[in-house]
Amino acid sequence: MPMEEIGIVSYGAYIPMNRIKVEEIASTWGRNPENIKKGLRISEKSVPSPDEDVATISVTAARHALSRVDINPADIGAIFIGSESHPYAVKPTSTIVGEAIGATPELMAADYEFACKAGTAAIQNCIALVRAGMIKYGLAIGADTAQSAPGDALEYTASAGGAAFIIGKDNIIARINHTCSFATDTPDFWRREARKYPRHGGRFTGMPAYFKHITEAAKMLMTKMGTKPEDYDYAVFHQPNGKFPLTVAKMLGFREEQVQQGLLTPLIGNTYSGSSPLGLCSVLDVAKPGDRIIMVSYGSGAGSDAFDITVTDSMKNFQREKAPTVKQLIERKRYINYAVYAKYRDLLYWE
Amino acid sequence: MRDVAIIGVGITKFGELWDKSFRALITEAGTKAILDAGIEGKDIDALFVGSMSPGRFIGQEHIGALVADSSGLHVMNIPTTRVENACASGGLALRQAYISVASGIHDIVVVGGVEKMTDVIGGEATDILAMAADQEWEAFFGVTFPALYAMIARRHMHEYGTTREQLAEVAVKNHDNGLLNPNAHFRRKITVDSVLNATMVADPLTVLDCSPISDGAAALVLAPLDKAKQYTDKIVKISGSGQASDSLALHGREDICTFKATVEAARQAYKQAGVEPKDIDFAEVHDCFTIAEILAIEDLGFVKKGEGGKATEEGRTRIDGDIPINPSGGLKAKGHPVGATGIAQAAEVVLQLRGEAGERQVKDAEIGLTHNIGGSGATCVVHILEVV
User: Fold this and answer.
1) CA-based, 20 to 30 A from A161: which of A52, A193, B11, B357?
2) pLDDT over threshold 80, residue B147
3) Domain match, B279 and B338 both
4) In this complex, do A203 and B19 lie within 8 Å of one another by their Cβ atoms?
């Protein structure tokens, strides 16, 4: 049975403009910033302002996606938002976004959570609904304002940002050739109900978690597609820090040049559910028709979603300039110190 | 008392072994030791296991029975005993097994040591290890083991002029040895600079002055010397065994730069073996922190008090030095799954004495010593092993 072509119709990104440098956090805790910069390959991270949350980030990314195409928002039949920092424990972010962009009320809406890979799970479900003919367009968003306990190693990387993808059949700029997933019960990182900060298993988050799931999902995808690392122009891997994606690329046989365009963590930190989706946005900002992309997300707990994507000829007429590129969003910044960071991230206490 | 020989050794890889459980580790080590000895399950009369805190690390007590069960020895209903004396649990289990064979109560005894430390996260392992200090007078006030050993290091530097660089040399040397040990937790070279510039743990000790949190197990098979010849030609005899105690808290000592428990345990072992420190060809000592190795080589009588740092700096403790210390990589590089450590030390000495230590082989090794400490020196077990 020939598969209908389904893919990305448009995309949009958003990154809050506040940045805090590794030096600023390290000096607060009496740590050597050079060791951290070298160890995590990160120099600064984005920080949400007090009036920014996953709802506002998602709305902005969705509006950026809509501004690049001539689509009636009412034709969006599903909105799925993946995040581990939904503003409400009970009450969906997806309805807030749906209302804000005019996609309500004939709308399937749901919030997803799968650590850092809920955004790519949203993409997969939009693909399925479009393929089933149940919706014309689906809006998949991955966004986070990631939590990190003060003084924890995560504090250097946990950041904010998000990306939105309109999935459909018409005028697709990038065809999703295939997607598959690898998931196991691996408790490397978690946040329990009503807890403010996540906990993690230290180095356990590496080899048996991140590296195992990404490499297995990537190999599964390449086996199914009959492809090799050199067949791809770009590779986007989940990026909890600046080091892991380069290491996993090497393990799989990808070159650093294939990874570089989608590697954003060194400059904005780990945007969790926004991480690999923002990396994909950065690739789509520069990709040409015919370019082939592999994206593999990772969510703790644990699983990876792998995607094989080919940029189509429609990219030529796509109005990328109608919304800011990831590069522009990264360059749009102002620095804050740890005191302001503490205020913004609700770390202060008074009665 | 009968003479006792070690006729089999088994050791697992040490490290962060995410895919190996407590029972899998000790069963693997035990099986290797039994195969090495060439005995069968039905030959085994008793089982001893050293483990420090499986109750808090994995929520499991009743370790003797667990190990018999997981290794299949429970079908013979043999006696099993778990031994605990903090980080000296392994060394003490060996001593208990030794006594049981020497006394004539048992013939063939398997003794293991094991710890599964990486199932807890973050600082919890530090808290669990701190249970080996005095809870009421030390741990309660926030003292951890790195802090206790840091105080010892500071005092040693003050009393004897030991330098920060000399401490680092211990770690550098042990990492060099670890490179040669396929089972070592760390197999990478470090430098004095990298030790000095690593993350500070408890001034003056950085993270590279500290032994790691490791998973691992080791096991030995003991037999009366007169029966050992039935099983092996490469007989290693336990010629001396000593054990001593001291105040649990560091502040109960007259001098924190000397571990009297080491001095006394060594005195007993030397006396029984009829040897002196100068007769020891090499030693596996308890370098949980770099300063601990310096104390050990002084308290064991290899160098004069206060000269441990200088001897290390001069390279005397390297594998090719005149007093090779920790050819296995020591706790620092080989790893420190606490309950396993004392047994792993003896396993290394046996391999060295048999001439089976590969690239890290100490030349002409005939008499070796193990030194296993509990806490900050409140327990010490010393064994002297020699080729028959």
Assistant:
1) A193
2) yes
3) yes
4) no
